[in-house]
Write a structure and sequence with these properties.
Amino acid/polyamine transporter I, 71% helix, 21 helices, mainly alpha, 495 residues
Length: 495
């Protein structure tokens, strides 16, 4: 039983951070841009429409505030850990030090689900805007190559067989653009982190320019009556709707934690990673609130287009050129999100495999020339391209959210534990008001988890059950920490 809860010593983790084959090329600007690139994407360009129409109405503004506060509490915890343990692996690594191996495995397995499905969701959103963008040039892709089977079957009004080709009785339905963009980004990530960071910084600049344009121009077309003239019209789904909306759009904030997964590729991780985490989250929270206010002010919440809400809002006012630039910004923005999420996923696999809990020769293999975990990157890209091409966006979002919220709870708890067990360990950044801030983070995350439907919880438990089997069959037997402790016990017995 002790082996299951064995912890990694903090000094061992710090030592590990100095022995790796990654290239340290990322500074505070690149890390902040990476955080913004990961966070601002599907939340603004995709999920705002559905969340406003189905869950919160104009009060989605408050939903973003609630989610943002929860993330700020958790971000401060992540920043402290990043300054203590500048090691790839994010919440997985932090849990290993504070809670023990079994909890680290749970979070690591959970993060695999989070980043994989998050990438799939973003790819689907990217596909919607890409299709809208090429449509302005008169180019069209058949519907059976731009949708998953579930979505197409529910919107075909019973005529699916008339619009979908079949092969050996199997309908050929695939979101091809979503699958292809994953493959392209995967190839870029294999080539190198420096090249990926440069590419990300460029498209983040494009994305921010478009968002600022939306805020500036859209403000002149806001109709205050669309926000309602009372709380009941501002929040048509009540306080519960605000909470449900917060739980749903929580996905919009996923990404700031991805900055911590690149700690071993940062030039000065103890200083720069906390800067990247906090700066990116604060900026994104402000922009989310502003854009949501503009969207719900321009279009009555029941009339918002859920596929491309911002572009459609400006099209309604005859601003076709603005709509075009929004689509360009969305395509660029969602591309940067994909890049960071896929990068983070491969680093999580690397961290877990480095500890022996997954096959090290596969998932921890570093390319001799590019200095990237190329095999895990390719595996992740292949799996995500399949899920992006075949799964509906609504169900993906729910699973991503609950998985992320669970990880955030663990990190917040871990900060409290290590303040007690390792109070004198060097911390370049300290989360203020411990344990108040971590506890508030846990409470906010648990509240949003409760707001998610039961079926989402069941799916999470199924995934964790599969993870438990993998750990029992492989991870527990090949754990490097367990082998180390066993060797120490043998030596002590001999003495």
């Amino acid at each position: 039983m002790k082996k299951l809860f064995a912890k990694k010593a903090l000094h061992d983790l710090v030592e590990e951070s100095n022995h790796h084959h990654f290239k340290r090329v990322l500074g505070p600007f690149s890390l902040s841009a990476m955080g913004v690139g990961a966070v601002i994407g599907a939340g603004i360009f995709v999920l705002t429409g559905l969340a406003a129409r189905e869950f919160a109405g104009p009060a989605l503004i408050l939903s973003f505030v609630l989610s943002g506060l929860a993330c700020i509490f958790v971000a401060l915890c992540y920043a402290e850990f990043a300054s203590m343990v500048p090691l790839a692996g994010s919440a997985y690594t932090y849990s290993y030090a504070a809670l023990g191996e079994v909890f680290a495995w749970i979070i690591g397995w959970d993060l695999i689900l989070e980043y994989s499905l998050a990438s799939s969701l973003v790819a689907v959103g990217w596909s919607h805007y890409f299709i809208k963008l090429i449509g302005t040039f008169g180019l069209h892709i058949p519907t059976w190559l731009t949708n998953d089977y579930w979505t197409l079957s529910h919107h075909s009004n019973g005529v699916l067989t008339q619009i979908v080709p079949y092969f050996c009785g199997i309908p050929i339905v695939l979101n091809l653009p979503a699958a292809l963009i994953i493959i392209v980004i995967t190839a870029l990530l294999v080539v190198g982190i420096k090249e990926s960071a440069r590419f990300n910084s460029i498209i983040v600049g494009v994305k921010l320019a478009v968002i600022l344009m939306v805020i500036f121009i859209g403000w002149f077309y806001v109709k205050k009556e669309n926000w309602g003239n009372s709380f009941s019209t501002f929040a048509p789904f009540g306080i519960g709707g605000i909470g449900t909306g917060a739980a749903y759009v929580f996905f919009a904030y996923i990404g700031f934690d991805a900055v911590s997964t690149t700690a071993q590729e940062a030039r000065n991780p103890k200083r720069d990673v906390p800067i990247g985490i906090i700066a990116s989250l604060v900026l994104c929270t402000i922009l989310y609130i502003a854009v949501t206010a503009i969207l719900t002010g321009m279009v009555y919440y029941k009339d918002i287009n859920v596929d491309a809400p911002l572009a459609d809002a400006f099209s309604r006012y005859g601003m076709v050129k603005v709509s075009f630039f929004i689509s360009v910004g969305a395509v660029a923005g969602l591309t940067s999100v994909l890049l960071v999420l896929l990068l983070s996923q491969s680093r999580i696999f690397w961290a877990i495999a480095r500890d022996g809990l997954l096959p090290e020769r596969i998932f921890a293999a570093i390319h001799p020339r590019f200095g990237t975990p190329y095999i895990s990157t390719i595996i992740v890209g292949g799996c995500v391209s399949v899920t992006a091409g075949c799964l509906p966006i609504e169900e993906i979002a729910k699973l991503v959210n609950i998985g992320t919220l669970l990880a955030f709870c663990m990190v917040s708890a871990a900060v409290i534990i290590l303040r007690v067990k390792a109070p004198h360990h060097p911390r370049a950044f300290k989360c203020p008001f411990v344990p108040v801030i971590p506890v508030l983070g846990i409470i906010a995350c648990v509240y949003m988890m409760i707001r998610l439907e039961l079926f989402t919880w069941i799916r999470l438990f199924i995934w964790l059950a599969i993870g438990a089997v993998v750990y029992a069959v492989y991870g527990r037997r090949h754990s490097k920490l367990a082998k180390k402790h066993a060797l120490m016990e043998k030596e002590n017995t001999r003495l």
